[in-house]
From TrEMBL:
It comes from the Bacteria. It comes from Chryseobacterium defluvii. CDD domains: TlpA_like_family. The keyword Isomerase applies. Residues 27-171 form the Thioredoxin domain. This is Thiol-disulfide isomerase/thioredoxin. GO terms for molecular function: isomerase activity. Keywords: Isomerase.
Amino acid sequence: MKKLLLLLMMGIFGLGCSQETPKVLKTNFSKEALNQKLENEEGQSVTIQQILDQHKGKVLVIDFWAGWCRDCLKALPKAEELEKNNPDIDFVFLSLERSKEGFDKSLERFHMKEKNNYWFASGWKNDFNNYVDLNWIPRYMVIDQKSAIAKYYAISPEDPEIQSTIDNLLKNAR
């Protein structure tokens, strides 16, 4: 009976999360998505637009993650390898921790303090995450030098399209 109840609960709670690839792979951000506020490590408010503006002219990889996410932690070594293999690329880490305390603890615990980190204080459901169809983490996006979306959907840092997108953007910039 306990096993049946456990399976039933897993089925009910599992319905909300799926790794289904979005039907529309967007190439730009909406005004509402760009106005979404996050917090940096110091607790200061910053918008997605401000983050993109800081990296304009560079290829940017956005990594959605959380310290409570088993798949994120499993992917972390490969994400670090992707970052190490692409020293000319900027990386931004968008955290879906449930609290500022959790955000701070995860940055410390997983040695992320020296990176570009932001936290969705508003939680998972917000204008940016809704616009980019965030239905699973980890999730990776590649943004081109003009702040357009070059690679919309990847759930693994080992997705070969991430590296090929980066390589194409760098090659076309020369």
